[in-house]
Amino acid sequence: MTGWTEGIQNAIEYIEENITEELDIHKIAEKACVSAFHFQRMFNALCGITVGEYIRNRRLSLAAQELAQSDARVIDVALKYGYDSPDSFTRAFTRFHGISPSAAKMNGANLRSFARVRIKLVLEGGTMLEYKIVKKEQFTVMGRVRTFNVETSYAEIPKFWDEHLGSDHSKIVCGMYGVCMDSDGKEFEYMIADNYLPWNEVPEGYVTKVIPAGTWAVFPCRGELPKSLQDVNTRIWSEWLPSCKDYKLAGNYNIELYATIAENPDDCYCEIWIPVEKV
Prior knowledge:
The chain is of the alpha+beta class. It has 2 domains: 2-104, Arc Repressor Mutant, subunit A; 132-278, Multidrug-efflux Transporter 1 Regulator Bmrr, Chain A, CATH 3.20.80.10. 40% of the residues lie in helices and 24% in strands. The protein has 10 helices and 9 strands. Strands 1, 2, 3, 4, 5, 6, 7, 8 and 9 form a 9-stranded antiparallel β-sheet that branches. Helix 2 (25-31) crosses helix 3, helix 3 (36-47) crosses helix 10 (227-243) and helix 4 packs across helix 6 (86-97). The longest helix is centred in the first third of the chain and has 19 residues, at 51-69. The mean pLDDT is 90.
C-alpha cells in the first residue's frame, strides 16, 4: 500500500511544483508509475474530480492569493497561471470565486481556497470486495465508437448510451459491452459493443476491435445502474489495487459487461474487467 500511495502523492507533488508551467498528463502519470489512461481513472475515483479540474482549481486558488496579497497586475497573474488572455482568466476566476480578479484585490474580498490533495488510504471496517482473476483468449467485438474527452466523459458517455438505446442501433448492437480504449491520455475511445460474429457483415458506421488475450480482474456489480458500477469502480482504485500484492495494471483499456439489465433496478448485474498481470 505504501508504494501505491507514494506513487500518487509523487504525481501530485509534481503538479504542485510545476503548477505555473505547462503540465503534460503523461509526465504526471510517470510519477505514479502508471499510464496516463489508468492514472486519470485512479485520480478521479480517489479524489472525485478530474486531473484537469484539480489543476485549474489549484491555479485559480493560488492566483487569488497572489492578487489579494500583492500588487501584481491581473494580466501578469493570468499569464503566470496559464491563461492566454485577461478575458478568459476573468471568466474562469469569476466562475470559481464569485467575484472578478479586480475585486479580489480589494480589502476584505471573499475568496475560495482549494487545498492541495494529500492522499491517505485508510483501512476501514471489514467489508470485502468480491472479484475473480480470469484468463481470457483473444476475442473480437463489434459496435459503435465515439471519442470522449477525459474531462467530460462522465457526463457524455451516458448520453451516448441513451442515444444508442433510443435508436435503431440497439437492434444491431444491444450493448453487451462498454469498452474504454486509450487514445492519447487526453481523449479515449468508448465503444458500445457485442461479440462479433465473423460470418456477419459489419454494417456501415460500425467497427470491430480485437481485445487481446490476457488476464483480467473481474468485479461483479449488483444493483441500480450507474450507482453500483460507480461504487465498485471507486473501491477498485481505493481499496483493491492499493492492497493487491500479486497483480499490477496491464493494458490501457477496460471493459464493462452488462449481463442483466432488469426492470427492477436491484436485479441488475454487470461486471468491470480490469486487465492485470503478475507482479
